[in-house]
Write a structure and sequence with these properties.
Length: 428
């Protein structure tokens, strides 16, 4: 049984409550790597040559999962949530800015999840009352958020949900391989470059980086959490991006119809069950991010409030433009975590002190980190398809790798120059 834990906000998790091992994290992150949205994202790769798409799926999934796991290590090393862990680099107010952006994108993700769940439920039951389904899934997501991550892993995923998800994933993949593989190889396009395909794949694990420490802070050991996260997420990300490529359908509704045709809807029911986990993670982390700004806010009230907001939004917007949403997330958070990983593993040598994250003497604004982040995000934007100067007819190097490297190196340069300036000033 899981202990009756308090609603942990932003305080470090006491050692006696750090109960999740490597296998727990394998289950959690392999579950979060599964989703109908991943099928949709994988379908965009049909514009690339088949072997480019496969290479991008493998390399992008592994590289993105490595970054995800290393970011989670900051949380598991220090037992702190994500936007407490960025304070030493970005400062208190810098962490507030990042947390606000994260709350906005998590409400967006939860809204998308409710939309997908509602579409799937309508297709499965033939009951087409959208707002009723939206309300039902909004309530379920709020309940999961209130129960918390330890209940999710120990009681829901480990004992029930993940095993039928694994089975259904195998059924989907084998069916698609027999039905669509030869036609996909013959019909994939040649317009998309390898690096654009890589951007689309790596966007999925990157999108979880602002959340990862909210869950990996409950780890028994940092090594176990890192390995479980890396293997679990990269494995399912590869499988589901490949599945999306085999589907070749960019429209979520068409994907849902196709899945329902496999085993008379049983697989679709399983996908609905697993999709709820993703929405839970978004809404729970939105609450934690809010508490990193206003610590005294009630976590359960935040979860209920964000669930209501996302449910309302789900009745007002459509799923169109999802690819652009992925690119926007990358533009914001890839360079941010490039800076954070550089600060933690290179400059601070994998050690943050408690007074760097809590207390009254925190740095208010981490100017070097914010400058490097802003320039990295601008570079991503200019190199991506979001840019007004983007020319699809020209070769592209993508935007993910350049923005990540640029923000990391720029932060390292500014920090080193700042240290040299201080040394020179003290010498005078």
């Amino acid at each position: 049984m899981v202990p009756n834990l308090p609603q942990w906000g932003i305080d470090p998790v006491p050692s006696k409550h750090r109960i999740l091992g490597a296998f727990d994290y394998f289950i959690l992150w392999s579950s979060l790597g599964v989703g109908l949205l991943v099928f949709s994202a994988g379908s965009f790769l049909s514009d690339a040559p088949f072997y480019y798409a496969i290479l991008a799926i493998i390399l992008g999934s592994i590289a993105g999962s490595v970054l995800l796991s290393l970011t989670g290590k900051i949380g598991s090393d220090n037992a702190v949530p994500s936007f407490i862990g960025i304070r030493p680099a970005f400062g208190l107010y810098g962490s507030y800015l990042a947390a606000i952006l994260n709350i906005i994108q998590l409400i967006g993700w939860t809204t998308f999840e409710i939309l997908i769940l509602s579409k799937a439920a309508q297709q499965l039951t033939n009951i087409h009352v959208t707002f009723v389904w939206n309300i039902l899934f909004g309530i379920i997501i709020a309940l999961f958020g209130i129960f918390g991550p330890l209940f999710l892993v120990k009681q829901w995923l480990s004992k029930f949900a993940i095993w039928i998800v694994y089975g259904s994933s195998i059924i989907i993949l084998v069916t698609l391989l027999f039905q669509n593989l030869s036609s996909v190889i013959a019909e994939t396009g040649k317009d998309m470059s390898f690096f654009v395909a890589l951007d689309i794949v790596i966007a999925m694990p990157i999108s979880w980086m602002p959340l990862v420490s909210d869950y990996n802070r409950f780890a028994k050991t940092s090594r176990g959490a890192l390995l479980g996260t890396l293997i679990g997420f990269s494995l399912t990300n590869i499988i589901f991006y490949f599945g999306g490529l085999l589907f070749g359908l960019t429209d979520i509704s068409s994907i849902i119809v196709s899945i329902q045709a496999i085993l008379f809807g049983f697989v679709l029911l399983v996908m609905i069950v697993d999709e709820i986990d993703n929405a839970f993670a978004d809404i729970y982390s939105a609450a934690i991010s809010s508490q990193s700004i206003f610590q005294n806010l009630n976590q359960r009230h935040l979860i209920i409030g964000f669930s209501i907001v996302s449910t309302i939004l789900a009745t007002l917007i459509s799923i169109e433009g999802y690819e652009q949403f992925l690119l926007l997330i990358g533009a914001l958070f890839i360079p941010l975590f490039g800076v954070l990983l550089t600060d933690y593993f290179v400059i601070k040598h994998g050690k943050y002190q408690n007074d760097m994250m809590y207390g009254n003497n925190l740095t208010k604004i981490g100017y070097p980190a914010i400058i490097a982040w802003a320039i990295g995000a601008l570079l991503y934007y200019l190199l991506s398809q979001l840019s007004p100067i983007y020319l699809s007819s020209l070769p592209t190097i993508g935007s993910t790798v350049p923005s990540l490297i640029a923000s990391s190196l720029l932060y390292l340069l500014i920090t080193k120059l700042g240290l040299k300036f201080k040394v020179a000033k003290n010498a005078i």
